[in-house]
């Protein structure tokens, strides 16, 4: 889906809303849906009085009270179990895993219960929950605070896995996730929480899940990415354009289920693909996209698929952190290789 097709139309006679950051768009979406649906509640560590470690829930406790904004113990297993229970009993809980690396104690409830609830009960029960997860590196955080673990959850049937990369998509996709009848893992790239601002009308308009967004049209090479790496890919496309290379940029946005058709259609025109993600290379989600291209788009490719990723190690702390993450230089170099190979 071309991003131009998804932009909200703003009434020129109406007052223009202020531009906001991605984290503010998350707060705005939560507040909107809590006003609109009294089944929606927020829970997690420090989400209430303190407004969350990244301030995503700032002001919600004062507005909705402690029965709708629940401060929980520092116990991720309990948070996940409580969320599943609430969801199966008619509520629409939005839980927060304070950091991506704190998800692992939640896996039993997410994988064994939330993801299987509709299947296990033959549709008698569903699990309409959202797990918000500050995700990824680049903020000089300590161990367990900079994971890029999305591929673990894309392998689980019954889960939706989404990752917005802009304030507008954060707002619209979170609304859609809360309204979804099944569990959604909603990864938030913390490196770009406050990187830039967009005008995001607080109109309650959800964006579609399960689609990729074409952020830039191109004819020579397709750059496929998600999360914080969208920024680097757009910058790489600018640099490539200065060299006369036209790069199309696709934000995957929903990793599971994957909108492969949009990727395949782009590659059918460009003949080349560079997949960019910050998770380790081995068995990262980019490998799934590369495999699908090999299976379904082999005869459209005129060069081998390139992957620009993190390395097969834990993200190094502090001094080497940005060296670990895919850079504009690495993306440009990979794109040039695809041109040289054809």
TrEMBL record:
It holds the Pfam family Transket_pyr. InterPro entries: THDP-binding (IPR029061), Transketo_C/PFOR_II (IPR009014), Transketolase-like_Pyr-bd (IPR005475), Transketolase_C (IPR033248). Its EC number is 1.2.4.4. Keywords: Oxidoreductase, Pyruvate, Thiamine pyrophosphate. Residues 20-195 form the Transketolase-like pyrimidine-binding domain. CDD domains: TPP_PYR_E1-PDHc-beta_like. SMART domains: Transket_pyr. It is an enzyme of class 1 (oxidoreductase). One of its GO terms (biological process) is branched-chain amino acid catabolic process. It comes from the Bacteria. One of its GO terms (molecular function) is branched-chain 2-oxo acid dehydrogenase activity. Its cofactor is thiamine diphosphate. The branched-chain alpha-keto dehydrogenase complex catalyzes the overall conversion of alpha-keto acids to acyl-CoA and CO(2). It contains multiple copies of three enzymatic components: branched-chain alpha-keto acid decarboxylase (E1), lipoamide acyltransferase (E2) and lipoamide dehydrogenase (E3). This is 2-oxoisovalerate dehydrogenase subunit beta. It comes from Aerolutibacter ruishenii.
């Amino acid at each position: 889906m071309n991003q131009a097709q998804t932009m909200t139309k703003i009434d020129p006679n109406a007052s223009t809303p202020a531009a906001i950051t991605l984290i503010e768009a998350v707060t705005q979406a939560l507040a909107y849906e809590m006003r609109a649906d009294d089944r929606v509640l927020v829970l997690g560590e420090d989400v209430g009085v303190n407004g969350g470690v990244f301030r995503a829930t700032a002001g919600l406790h004062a507005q909705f009270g402690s029965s709708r904004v629940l401060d929980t113990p520092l116990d991720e297993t309990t948070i996940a179990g409580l969320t599943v229970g609430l969801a199966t009993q008619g509520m629409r809980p939005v839980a927060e895993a304070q950091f991506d690396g704190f998800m692992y104690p939640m896996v039993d409830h997410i994988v064994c219960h939330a993801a299987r609830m509709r299947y296990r009960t033959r549709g008698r029960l569903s699990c309409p929950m959202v797990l918000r997860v500050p995700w990824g590196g680049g903020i000089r955080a300590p161990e367990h605070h900079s994971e890029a673990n999305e591929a673990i959850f894309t392998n689980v049937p019954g889960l939706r896995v989404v990752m917005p990369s802009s304030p507008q998509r954060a707002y619209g996709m979170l609304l859609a996730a809360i309204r979804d009848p099944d569990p959604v893992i909603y990864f938030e790239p913390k490196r770009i929480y406050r990187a830039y601002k967009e005008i995001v009308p607080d109109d309650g308009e959800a964006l579609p899940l399960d689609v990729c967004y074409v952020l830039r049209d191109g004819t020579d090479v397709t750059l496929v990415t998600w999360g914080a790496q969208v920024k680097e890919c757009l910058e790489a496309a600018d640099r490539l354009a200065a060299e006369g290379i036209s790069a199309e940029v696709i934000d995957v946005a929903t990793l599971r289920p994957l909108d492969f058709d949009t990727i395949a259609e782009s590659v059918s025109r460009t003949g080349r693909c560079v997949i960019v993600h910050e998770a380790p290379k081995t068995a990262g989600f980019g490998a799934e996209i590369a495999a699908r291209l090999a299976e379904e788009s082999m005869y459209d490719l005129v060069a081998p698929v390139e992957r620009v990723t993190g390395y097969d190690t834990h993200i190094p702390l502090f001094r080497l952190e940005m060296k670990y993450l895919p850079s504009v230089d690495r993306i440009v170099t990979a794109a040039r290789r695809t041109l040289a190979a054809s």
